Amino acid sequence: MNSRANSCVIHGNNFDISNILLTFAPVMTESISQLKQILAFPRQIVIIAHRNPDGDAIGSSMGLASFLEKTGHNVKVVFPSDYPQSYKFIKGIEKAVVFDNDQAAARKAVDDSDVIFCLDFNGLDRIDKLGENVQFSKAKKILIDHHLDPEPFTDIEFSETESSSTCELVFKVIDELGERHKIDPDTGECLFTGLITDTGSFRYGTRPYTYEVAASLKQLGVDDYKLADKIFNSQKEKHLRLLGHCLANRMEIIQDYGVGIMWLTRKDYTDFDIQRGDTEGIVNYMLMMENIRVAAFVLEQPSIIKISLRSKGDISVQEIAQKYFNGGGHKNAAGGGVYASLQDIIEKVKKVMPVHLDRLV
Questions:
Q1: Across the chain, which distance is largest between two alpha carbons, in Å?
Q2: Residue 77 lies in a domain
Q3: Which of 232, 265, 293 is the last residue of a domain?
Q4: What is the CATH number of the domain that holds 310?
Q5: How far is it, in rounded angstroms, from Cα 257 to Cα 264?
Q6: pLDDT string in tens for the chain (361-residue length)
Q7: Cα–Cα distance between 129 and 125 in angstroms, integer?
Q8: Last residue of a domain, one of 217, 232, 247
Q9: In which domain, by residue range, is 131 found?
Q10: Same domain, residue pair 273 and 183
Q11: I need a labelling partner for 324 at 20 to 30 A (CA). Which of 88, 139, 201, 315 fits?
Q12: 23, 268, 281, 306 from 302: Cα distances, Å
């Protein structure tokens, strides 16, 4: 495993939209300089995102791939597991290699690479079996991520937990490389996808810089209205029926602590033909209620119980996910996975929340 050669935190929130100039700490300048050297001539590059890729993982991976291809590199995007079909509109995504579908091709791509970009994950366990290939690869490894406490497995690290999304950081890195002019509408659409999805349509996790990036991408030709329409208004009938089922039959409210709990059983997965990505965003509906501060969505999958946690304000569900559910994430959005029964995890959520929340008056 490589030691962390250059760890940096990206800074700088103020710039003129018409002539973007970011201000970084000196260590960022050094890391950018080293990245420029790595990318100075054509390379075999692999971009890897986390398992069960969401809009930010997909958008940052495909956006960075689009940019690197324009600069003359041979690029392959590898996802550990398949992506939700709601993102099939993203240009070039059909060329991505899915490890679960073709393990040999995914491993070969990693083993043959000169450079590996690790996007939107902070530890090798987030890419499952591909982690071993990445760990022992002699390729230069570069992390671009906004999760807490990244593990030291890369050579260059661009990490900023205050960032709204990894897509936001990819934009920053491209801009600091002096290559913003190579972000065309297709690349910009990829990056805007992460901005929209990881912020819940700019409802949480934003900062002034997030809107500056969004404005810049819009100036470059991204049609944010059409993009949002593609992402959010392409659901099938079964998705709405599943949502109705969750709200009517699978939701419990703990009024004293402002907690909403929702769950799905294995039978629900069969009855509603739930596929990858079909449950995305459902947990957020509980936060629409006035006094709900924390929402938990517990999913009984074939071999593991998954849990998604969301919160309002200063409540850190990242701490809860890490301490009780073998997970992590962000302050207001986290998740985990536990080998237990569905009912045990539901009961655990009920016991844990009063420990971390004050009783509502």
A1: 63
A2: yes
A3: 232
A4: 3.10.310.30
A5: 22
A6: 443 444 444 444 444 444 444 433 334 678 899 999 999 999 999 999 999 899 999 999 999 999 999 999 999 999 999 998 889 999 999 999 999 999 999 999 999 999 999 999 999 999 989 999 999 999 999 999 999 889 999 999 999 999 999 999 999 999 999 999 999 999 999 999 999 999 989 988 899 999 999 999 999 999 999 999 999 888 889 999 999 999 999 999 999 999 999 999 999 999 999 988 889 889 999 999 999 999 999 999 988 999 999 999 899 999 999 999 999 888 899 999 999 999 999 999 999 999 999 998 7
A7: 8
A8: 232
A9: 6-232
A10: no
A11: 201
A12: 47, 12, 21, 10
Q: Please answer whether residues 315 and 122 qualify as being in contact, where contact means their C-beta atoms are separated by less than 8 angstroms.
A: no
Residue 135 DSSP one-character state: H
Three-state SS letters, 255-274 = CCCCEEEEEECHHHHHHCCC
Q: Measured between alpha carbons, how far is 192 from 199 in angstroms, rounded to an integer? A: 11
**Cα–Cα nearest to 312, from 291, 336, 338, 342:** 291
Would 361 be classed as within a structural domain? no
State both tokens at 333.
């959005």
- DSSP per residue, 52-70: S--HHHHHHHHHHHHHHHH
Containing H/E element for 140? strand 140-145
Domain total for the chain? 2
Shared-domain flag, residues 129 and 66: yes
Residue 86 is assigned to a structural domain of this protein: yes
C-beta neighbour count of 244 within 10 angstroms: 10
User: Residue 1: inside a domain, yes or no?
Assistant: no
Please provide residue 259's backbone torsions phi and psi, each rounded to the nearest 5 degrees. Answer: -120, 135
CATH of the domain at 204: 3.90.1640.10
